[in-house]
Amino acid sequence: MQANDRLLTPLLRVSGLTRHYGARIGCADVGFELWPGEVLAVVGESGSGKSTLLKLLSTRLAADAGRIEYALLGRGLTELSRLSEAERRWLLRTDWGFVEQNPRDGLRMNVSAGANVGERLMATGARHYGEIRAAAQDWMARVELDPARIDEAPSRFSGGMQQRLQIARNLVTKPRLVLMDEPTAGLDVSVQARLLDLLRELVTSFGLAAVIVTHDLAVARLLAHRLLVMQGGRVVETGLTDQVLDDPQHPYTQLLVSSVLHL
Amino acid sequence: MSATGYNFAYLDPQTKRMIRRALLKAVAIPGYQVPFGSREMPLPYGWGTGGIQVTASVLGRDDVLKVIDQGSDDTVNAVNIRRFFARTADVATTDRTAEATVIQTRHRIPEAPLAEGQIMVYQVPEPEPMRRLEPREAVTRTLHALADYGFMHVKLYEDIARYGHIATTYDYPVMVNGRYLMSPSPIPKFDNPKLHRSPALQLFGAGREKRVYAVPPYTRVESLDFEDHPFSVQRWDEPCALCGADDSFLDEVVLDDAGGRMFVCSDSEYCASRQHAGHTGPAHRAQRGSLAAARAGEVGIEQGKPVPASNDTASARLGRGPASS
């Protein structure tokens, strides 16, 4: 049954998604399908509408037009705007995750690492301290943080560790879809590489579907199955990652690929 | 009250109607904070402007009023509010919990069990239990509307992680009727179990924040906790030094600068009535009259030296606990 569902319907279906900021275009007529376990990278330069798209997907921003449908457990494809606010919040903190570019936006900086990881569990009804703590330690270990530091405040962690903590905090409820906004930006290269490694492993071992917004084509190459290239709020090219990066068709994609520095 | 030139119980009739309407709504939705047009009162915010407006609105000519502050009938706040209503409403006042029909309180629930027909009025400094975690009013209202209270447990988790137990000792958040999270006002958590299925009507007024809320009689009131760290109340190693009670909330009274101290009931009326009934505590049995003198002036059992007992107990507790709001 589960296997059939996974084959028959996409996890997320977006069509005609449009958002204007006054006269300017935030993003226009964006559509794609995301299948379970698939990683989609959205690339483009600053101001191309990547972050607007992610905000629309996470319902933090209301769309002017278009539909976002998500395959709810046991309910099939459902338009998100039809859900009540309570249902939407429940979805966002159980079946979805959102990894912010700046971990300080996604973490509670004034409570311990354990409380950060355990928050979603408590929000969904966990009321056993020992179990919440065990789950938090388990997840800290999975993202390669020292579980002994469970009672330390996130501010005492390095940038890369904070980002891993944020990932643990999001994955603790075993979501099926994770939205990430430039998860590796602002980290130095070696930390980036480790984080990408970790993400790739988590995505494959949990069958996570993910939408990753990035301006870094290397991140897209490593993580994503498919690529969505945006310019001026519109999707200009889409396809398999290797296909798009090795044989870009649209002039803007060609420019983007040729702009990557080679050492 | 033509004699004083004031309306009955100070407030004008329209204001009382407005507050009563808010109170009716509050009773209909237990634990829900109802906004009301808080009036300027002849005492400063933080001294019980919310409680005094609620009392003024529910008080009738036949009511018997008791006012307590930190458990005592004789502290400045209690004396003044009691005198205020004695003058503006000409109602009977009492120290005895059992005789009172309306009890206005700050920081305590009386030890003597409440009965049907009694009304408790609480003075509330901050009605929003989530305020310290979430400063935005719009957000807390949304969280209440959606019953989205998960992150309150984050604070309790943090307490246990840091101190090994839930360190919140007063204003301990409660769930009312399984629906609304409520601040019980800054009563010690010792009093939280008394809120649960109380036969009395419990009204809460916050004057500065302009909110009233209520717990109707026999309503479920549960303190938040974890399964493996259940809610528990404060315990003391010794009974009350004056009346020997081992079931009441005790204040620590510092007696000298050489470490001398004793523990006495915070509810002075409860303590005095027990002593009248012949109960004695360790201080009496040890024949140390000078110790008992610290509370003697207040509870009136023996004529001791004049010691400002009640203010000492209040400040001793405030000094010990976390920052009082």
From TrEMBL, chain A:
Molecular-function GO term, any one: lyase activity
Native source species: Chitiniphilus shinanonensis
Ranges that cross the membrane: none
Gene3D superfamilies: P-loop containing nucleotide triphosphate hydrolases
ABC transporter domain mapped to chain residues: 12-257
Keyword Chaperone part of the UniProt annotation: no
Protein name: Phosphonate C-P lyase system protein PhnK
NCBIfam families named among the record's database cross-references: CP_lyasePhnK
A Pfam entry, by short name: oligo_HPY
UniProt cross-references to SMART domains, sorted A to Z: AAA
Keywords: ATP-binding, Cell membrane, Lyase, Membrane, Nucleotide-binding, Transport
InterPro entries registered for this protein in UniProt: AAA+_ATPase (IPR003593), ABC_transporter-like_ATP-bd (IPR003439), ABC_transporter-like_CS (IPR017871), Oligopep_ABC_C (IPR013563), P-loop_NTPase (IPR027417), PhnK (IPR012700)
PROSITE patterns per the UniProt record, alphabetical: ABC_TRANSPORTER_1, ABC_TRANSPORTER_2
Taxonomic placement: Bacteria, Pseudomonadati, Pseudomonadota, Betaproteobacteria, Neisseriales
From TrEMBL, chain B:
Keyword terms, alphabetized: 4Fe-4S, Iron, Iron-sulfur, Lyase, Metal-binding, S-adenosyl-L-methionine
Top EC category: lyase
InterPro entries documented for this protein: PhnJ (IPR010306)
Keyword presence, Ion transport: no
Region (Disordered): 274-325
Catalytic activity: alpha-D-ribose 1-methylphosphonate 5-phosphate + AH2 + S-adenosyl-L-methionine = alpha-D-ribose 1,2-cyclic phosphate 5-phosphate + methane + 5'-deoxyadenosine + L-methionine + A + H(+)
EC number from the UniProt entry: 4.7.1.1
GO molecular function, one term: lyase activity
Pfam families: PhnJ
Signal sequence coordinates: none
The keyword Flavoprotein appears for this protein: no
Family: Belongs to the PhnJ family.
Task of the protein: Catalyzes the breakage of the C-P bond in alpha-D-ribose 1-methylphosphonate 5-phosphate (PRPn) forming alpha-D-ribose.
Name used for this protein in its record: Alpha-D-ribose 1-methylphosphonate 5-phosphate C-P lyase
Native organism: Chitiniphilus shinanonensis
Lineage, broadest ranks: Bacteria, Pseudomonadati, Pseudomonadota, Betaproteobacteria, Neisseriales
